[in-house]
Specification:
It contains ten helices and 20 strands. The protein is 28% helix and 26% strand. The longest helix has 20 residues. It is globular, with a radius of gyration of 23 Å. With 437 residues, it is α/β, with parallel strands linked by helices. The chain has a twelve-stranded mixed beta sheet, sandwiched between helices. The protein has a four-stranded mixed beta sheet with strand order 19-18-17-20. It has three domains: 130 residues, Rossmann fold (3-Layer(aba) Sandwich); 166 residues, ANL, N-terminal domain (Rossmann fold, 3-Layer(aba) Sandwich), CATH 3.40.50; 94 residues, 2-Layer Sandwich (GMP Synthetase, Chain A, domain 3), CATH 3.30.300.30. Helix 3 packs across helix 6. The structure holds zinc ion. The site of zinc ion has 8 residues, from loops.
Amino acid sequence: MLQAANIIGSLVRSLPDSWVFSKSFRYAKRISESFESVLDKKDYVCSYQEKILKDIFTLATKTIYYREYNFELGIETLPFIQKETIVSNFNDFIITTNKADLVSTGGTSGKPLVFYIDKLRKGFEWYWMTSNWSNVDFDLHKSYRAVLRNHNLENKLYKRNSLLKEIQFNNFCLSDEYLDYIINFIAINKIPYVHAYPSAACQLAHRALQSGRVLPDLKSFLCGSETIYKHQKDTIQNLLGKRMYTWYGHSEKLILAGEGRKCEYYHHNPFYGFAELVNQHGDVIRNPGEIGELVGTGFINTKMPFIRYKTGDFAEFVGNECPVCGHIGLTFKNVRGRWSGERIIKNNGDYVTTTSLNLHNDIYKHINGFQYVQNVKGIVEIRVIPADSWNLEIANRLVSDLEAKVGHELKFICKEVTELEFAKNRKYKLLVQNIEE
Ligand SMILES: [Zn+2]
């Protein structure tokens, strides 16, 4: 039965989107439409970025932190800031707190980052996010989503949000019975999109494969907000045969980069912020294949601007334009969180990253989830949620394949479990690293 709030939500949704989603939604829509209409798109992007950066710099000079900055020589001459810079100079970054929200990024360890950002950001964000999703034919006016993210619904099986056209499910207790319930719900109601943390999407896909209900009406998974691993794409795209559409974004709202219609690289949206990839010397990367840190200057935040903010996330440079689909803007792949979180320490103190441990594709048929846990140097526990076809022979093969890859300085032990370890906000990490560096 619809609740009162949802009846209002449904009524509101019958109004045009540009009215429902505020001034900033209309602003983003206008940019997008005028970009579509011009012939020289590269020139449009360059002039737009130049103009907005100038505006941001002018605003920034009103803060204590930036007032001494020389913005004349261009963005590449400006120093970097990072989370610690904001944490220790919080008040010096503030322009105003009027019409601002105070938000906090939920770090899994250490002090969280707290900052002010425009209340109006939501419409802007929603426009560009859904415009990414339109690459998998998502229709803002019609498409419903089954959502498996950070909603903890206590005793409810689901919650409907008619305004955003979403059915939220509880991602905090994904038992087989509950997954079956969600799969049935999606099938009966012909819900075309599952908007989920990649780990939850993967659990759902495994269950669908196992139970043989492979969701014929589902068009695509929409996955972001966690590191995306190759094994998850393999499961969803190769085994289940559905598109796993992914994007890179973060709570600071400086960079938003989605996959293309066919192309699976990340394409930064040049109207959302200014994005750079920089190497360890602080130089901007211009060579394909080079790996560096994502650095962002946001266009949304006029209350507390972040200029050349080091995100702590790393990626491989593909181009300033996409060589495959022609997107104009920073194009990258293989996004990884801070390297330390992905490092497995060998007996001799060297390390390997989890990226180098790609497993054979056929192993995923036999497991419903896995995770590496390291408590001791030189030893890695592989926690596996077994599927029905899992057996000792497969377990031994998994261990020997991995050991053959990394040499004898690292031993693997396979352990069957019923659940993996998640952070408090229900985010998944491929490696739980318990060795302090
Ligand atoms: Zn592309």
